[in-house]
Amino acid sequence: MPTDSQPAHPFRVFLVDDHRVVRSGVSAYLAMVEDIEVVGEASDGQQALDRMAVLEPADALPDVVLMDLVMPGMDGITATRQIKARWPAVEVVAVTSFVEESKVRGALEAGAAGYLLKDADADELAAAIRAAVSGRMHLDPAVARILADSTRASQQTGDSLTRRQHQVLLLIAEGASNRQIAETLVVSERTARTHVSDILARLGLASRTQAALWAVQEGLVPGPRPGR
User: Fold this and answer.
1) 150: helix, strand or coil
2) Which of 64, 56, 61, 60 is nearest to 13 (CA)?
3) What distances in angstroms separate CA 81 from CA 110, 141, 163, one per listed residue?
């Protein structure tokens, strides 16, 4: 019987990277982690979508996809967006060599629940997977700094937010989706989506992740874990 610290089944992970040696290395890392199981792999975004479609009828979809961003064919940002649109419950963690702000923003805005560099060790990789499954975000420290600097540079203020928008902002910071926000506040998903867009516009931010970081900096919530 699983304990409070162990899931009922290992967290299922799917690897997407165009380099076989990288997939083999990550798979070897995760083989040493008791509560994580690699259930499939792909060499590009389209292959990942095709193979996950095969897993779906068997109720064997992964809990988390570890996604490279720069690949031939369908890139990782496009694949992340399509995975989140088709299988919202599947979390995606970007694992890449690049920390450019455009790639960070692109991955997170596509729905990634974390962003790690390929030199991350096994413990950090496992921590990012567990965080994604539990609805939290795990960012490499360098990535967290990029987002924090960008957020501070906007010099936004929350004085113009309504009481309802403050409620929505807190839910965003806790990692809630538009559907979860709608259910919590007993409004339509369309209304929740409108509130999120209005908050980003009023604060001068480009993404939900920046909104969450803003809430952390303002001391409204503990916020997502920015790495180890």
Assistant:
1) helix
2) 64
3) 5, 24, 31
Do the bridges between strand 91-96 and strand 138-139 make them parallel or antiparallel, or are there none, so unpaired?
Answer: unpaired
Distance CA 62, CA 76 (A): 16
Whole-angstrom distance between the N-terminal and C-terminal Cα of the chain? 30
pTM for this model (two decimals): 0.70
Total residue count of the chain as it appears in this document: 228
User: Which segments of the chain have a pLDDT < 50?
Assistant: 1-4, 155, 223-228
How are the residues of the chain apportioned to helix, strand and coil, as percentages rounded to the nearest 5? 50, 15, 35
CA distance linking residue 8 with residue 188, whole number of Å: 33
**Residue ranges of domains in the chain, CATH in brackets:** 11-139 (3.40.50.2300), 154-217 (1.10.10.10)
Q: What pLDDT digit, counting tens, does each position of 158-196 carry? A: 566 888 988 998 888 887 888 889 999 999 888 888 888
Contacts of 37 (CB under 8 A, 6+ apart): 10, 11, 12, 13, 30
